[in-house]
Write a structure and sequence with these properties.
Layout (H helix, E strand, L loop, with lengths): L1 H12 L2 H17 L9 H13 L3 H27 L23 H26 L6
Helix pairs in contact: 2-3, 3-4, 4-5
């Protein structure tokens, strides 16, 4: 849970260039960990990663969309955990700015999945608001 909090907080506020630099650094590190028997595949893995980052194939576009969707799911889960603990959805617990990434989803399949998670979020916020209005949330 703590990892998700740190990750979501960083991801939502990271400068795009800094985020890219850190991701490239992480990819270089992961490739360097390959055992000798797979070291010859390092360049190919790097090519696949670059393909993903640039979104130059249908597969890369789908994977990038699913990656964005997974972040939406994480954010809703984080908000749900806050509601379940009786906390208000405001401040850092309000991840509204994070959800703008859904507009960058390109494939119809993942757009549909994202719409479903946004409906879940809407229902969650209604539930949280009704708890506060009804005095259940004493915070």
């Amino acid at each position: 849970m703590e990892y998700q909090k740190v990750f979501l907080h960083y991801y939502a506020r990271a400068d795009k260039d800094e985020k890219h630099r850190r991701e490239m650094e992480a990819m270089d590190h992961l490739v360097s960990l390959l055992p000798d028997t797979l070291a010859s595949s390092a360049a190919y893995l790097r090519e696949l990663y670059d393909e993903y980052e640039l979104g130059v194939s249908r597969e890369a576009i789908v994977v990038k969309d699913v990656d964005k969707y997974e972040l939406l799911v994480q954010a809703v889960e984080y908000e749900r955990d806050s509601v379940n603990r009786g906390e208000k959805l405001e401040g850092l617990r309000d991840l509204t700015s994070f959800f703008g990434m859904r507009h960058g989803i390109k494939t119809d399949l993942v757009k549909g999945l994202a719409a479903d998670i946004m409906k879940e979020r809407e229902d969650l916020w209604k539930k949280a608001s009704s708890h506060i209005v009804n005095g259940i949330n004493g915070n």
